Amino acid sequence: MRETLLNALAILNEESGAHVDLYYAGDAGDVPFIPNALTVRFQDIRECCPTQPCPDGVVNNNPLGQASSWNCGSEGSGVAIFLKNCDGTVRDWRTSFSPGLGIMFEGVLVHEIVHAVWGILHTDAGGSSVMIPAYVQDTHNAFRHLFTIDANTIELRSGLSSRVASYTTSTTGVSWSAPQLVTSHYPERFTTVGPAIARRATLPGQSSGEVLVAWPNMDVRAWRARFGVPGSGGAFTPPASYPSNAAGRRLPVAVSYSAYGEVAVAAVGPCGAGSVHCPIHTAWSSNLGGSWVQSSIEAGFGTITRPVLEYDGYRDRFVLFFIRASDGYLYSTWRAAAPGGWWQSPVLASSHRRYRFLGGAVFHPSGAPNLLTAAQDDPDIATMHRMVQLAVNVTGGGSTYTLGSPGNLGSAFQNYRTRRPFGMAYDAGTDRTRIVWRGNNASRALFSTDRVGTGTGFFGSPVELMPNAVNSVDLTRTSSSWVATLSAL
Predict the structure, then answer these.
(1) Of 158, 175, 203, which closes a domain?
(2) What mean pLDDT do residues 213-240 have?
(3) What is the mean pLDDT of the chain?
(4) What's the CATH code of the domain at 62?
(5) Which residues pair with 82 in a beta bridge?
(6) How does 293-329 read in b/e, with b if 16+ C-beta sit within 10 Å?
(7) Beta strands 370-376 and 387-395: pairing type?
(8) What are the Cα distances from residue 141, in Å, to 28, 145, 315?
(9) Do 209 and 354 belong to one domain?
């Protein structure tokens, strides 16, 4: 129950810009509401008929959950989740990413917390909102995530997030700079999720310190993009640019930057209009964002979390990996980085496990080995959201990107996991692959570690970079330094 509550809070915090955190988990007894706090209780039933089934004309008053009408300020607020049916049997709860009938436990928690913290009422059936009280009909996974209208309403109730698109740099990966703003220009900085970053890829004998950073912007309800070289002052030039029809795309974005100057962006959302998935919209530019060629991944292949978009320099392609919302499996697609390319039909890349978040992908300059990292979301895994690595295989005569079996990152990772998308990048100069991630709610620090090569193998012991990282992070490697992006307060 504690883990499921932490998952629900992670969803709310990342997707709405809120900051609702867990400070105590245990048996508190029948305590009253606590001022300036949200109390979440789990109990068997609320109220049932004296005999089962109920006599004619009598209705059970035993909902899935209930939220108080109090506030989280001076009075405090509360949520109660009722775990059993009136006949004493446990309800058909499900917490995994797998599709099928059942009551999405996290979705109920997200729904009731939105009631309790922001006072938002139910949405009529047929709409696109987590506030539809019809969890049992959830045959997909969108109901445990906020739709665009939910996040927009929370923003109107509580104001803009104070989080800003930021980055930190390190030459060796041992010591890191204090976070700096990607841009100090007010209309471009507020973000709910961590920015995505990609360096300009290089050809043999070349070097480049230029990067592309993109993030969903709360002010203009679109994603912004900036090109530049990380350094003192935190200002990237030229000014931010984005496709004209990007409005409403407030969920995560992924970026990639080819060796010849083409750039690609994959933006998730908006989630609405009855969609069971959040669509993936793509944009491609060959003039640093001066103009964009836009398209969408085929219907039915949407996602919720940030995808991975990486440049395969050996084949001059942009490769996209994503978690399909309807089944939790990993899918892939690609397009030629050069002008005239198009996204191929998505293919199932891995169905060994179901996944919750993605890390990153690295492609070796010689064409192989290649690697993808992700966080699992299977109920039979002892450590939920454990980070794993999967070999990337190029099959079908080079036409398909599939994945090998998931493997542990190393013996030191038994106690490390994440509830956010994370980052991975490769330094061809030293032949080292590095990952960065935001710890779970017991340890919210920003961590990093690395190892030799781009194949599957154990990473070293994690090192804490800063004590409190907010939401998702990403990573790239320029010719001179590692650059990690995050949303900072």
Answers:
(1) 158
(2) 63
(3) 80
(4) 3.40.390.10
(5) 43
(6) eeeebeeebbbbbbbbbbbbbeebbbbbbbbbbbbbb
(7) antiparallel
(8) 32, 8, 34
(9) yes
- Extended beta strands in 127-171, E state: 164-170
The DSSP bridge pattern shows strands 446-452 and 423-427 to be unpaired
Nearest partner of 266 among 328, 206, 346, 203, judged by Cα:
346
Map tokens 């080819």 to a residue: 258
Mean pLDDT calculated for residue range 365-387: 79
Tokens of 55: 């006599």
Integer Cα distance of 387 and 377 in angstroms: 10
Q: Note whether 115 and 189 are same-domain residues.
A: no
Q: What are the pLDDT digits (tens) for 412-448?
A: 776 678 888 999 999 988 999 999 998 875 667 889 9
Are 252 and 109 part of one and the same domain? no
State the pLDDT at residue 243.
Answer: 54
Same domain, 203 and 91: no
Q: Work out the percent of the chain whose per-residue pLDDT is above 70.
A: 77
Q: What is the helix, strand, coil percentage profile of the chain, to 5?
A: 10, 35, 55
Region of poorest pLDDT, from 41-45, 130-134, 292-296, 342-346: 130-134
Amino acid at 120: I
Full domain range(s) for residue 469: 164-488
Positive or negative, the Cα torsion across 156, 157, 159, 160?
Answer: negative
Count of structural domains within the chain: 2
| CATH at residue 187 | 2.120.10.10
Q: What is the pTM of this model?
A: 0.88
Segment 59-109, tens digit of pLDDT: 788 888 888 766 666 778 888 888 998 888 998 887 766 566 677 788 888
Judgement on whether residues 228 and 144 belong to the same structural domain of the protein:
no
CA distances from residue 57 to 45, 60, 61, 74, 338 in whole angstroms, order as listed = 20, 10, 13, 40, 69
* 95 and 45 within one domain: yes
Q: What angle do CA 52, 56, 59 make, to 5 degrees?
A: 65
Model pLDDT, residue 396 = 83
The answer to whether the CB of 211 falls within 8 A of the CB of 197 is yes
Quick count: other Cβ atoms within 10 Å of Cβ 84? 15
Rounded average pLDDT over 242-269: 74
